[in-house]
Amino acid sequence: MANCSSVAGMRAFLDEEADHREVEYFQGLEQFREQGLPCQLPAAERDKLQDDSVLGELQRSLQALRLRRAPSSAINEAKNQLSTHRMTLEREALRLYQKQWIQDRRVWKILTRGKERAKDVCRNDLFQHLCLLRPERGRLARMMASEEPLSLADHRLAIRDMHSLITQDFTVLYLPGHEPAEGACPVACCRQDLER
């Protein structure tokens, strides 16, 4: 981002002199990004929201309206109030949880003096395992990351791999070469029917 932030695209298009004052100190968004920041409340934290007294009161009033067989407009209004309050609670709880998470993470970095690395929250290791089970994924990833132009054979292979990933049944994963042969175990001495 820093390499292209000084490009004044509109001024270049209009053939005007470039003005770089607004990007003089701009170096990217990395300083504001927290790797692994949770974007959802954990289930335990979400369950704690049920203790909110206003939420409980709104739930009881909705239940009372349903028992009295109130008009649907009144029930819908109560549902909307309940939903809005629940979303507000979750949003506020998530913001506080993220703030605490960032604070704990920074304390952890200070205590470890930056020598330890955080867990891989992106689960890159899982992708590596999936590439062993589905070599098509690995080939496609290498082609997508390559800066060299692809040959016609590579294009055909990529299309074949994408078609394979889209059409195959992945309810059970087998290592390449160990798929059932005609619905039976591929080991010659076994040949047990796998449909049962």
Secondary structure blueprint with pairings:
Blueprint: H1 9-13, H2 43-48, H3 53-67, H4 72-111, H5 124-133, H6 135-145, H7 152-167
Strand content: under 5%
What is the CA-based Rg, rounded?
28 Å
- Count of alpha and pi helical runs: 7
User: Residue share in helices?
Assistant: 40-55%
Count of DSSP strands: 0
Description of the structure:
The protein contains 7 helices and no strands. With 196 residues, the chain is an all-alpha fold. Among the domains are: 1-33, no CATH class; 43-111; 135-167, no CATH class. It is extended, with a radius of gyration of 28 Å. It starts with 8 loop residues before the first helix and ends in a 29-residue tail after the last helix. The mean pLDDT is 80.
Keywords:
196 residues, mainly alpha, extended
Short description:
The chain is mostly helical and 196 residues long. Helices cover 53% and strands 0% of the residues.
